[in-house]
Amino acid sequence: MIATLEGISYLLLLGVAMPLKYVWDKPEFVKYAGWAHGVLFVAYAVALIMCWAKYKWSFGKAALIFFASLLPIAPFIVERKLMKEALQNA
pTM here? Predict the structure, then answer.
């Protein structure tokens, strides 16, 4: 769920707040969207570390999931794959 929220906040920051700042001179939207995205990014990183320890993921898997958070669409893909993996292992 955190990956989905983080992905949405990233898309809102890039697709809504940044154009509002640079096209329509409305920088306040970047302030709030950026703050929300920052909080969600930290939550994503903390959840990743907790899952890495709990599920004993390899360093490569954890690194791949972390780097996925840097791409706008990738957190949705990660969330979907992890949910599918969790359902198979349940």
Answer: 0.83
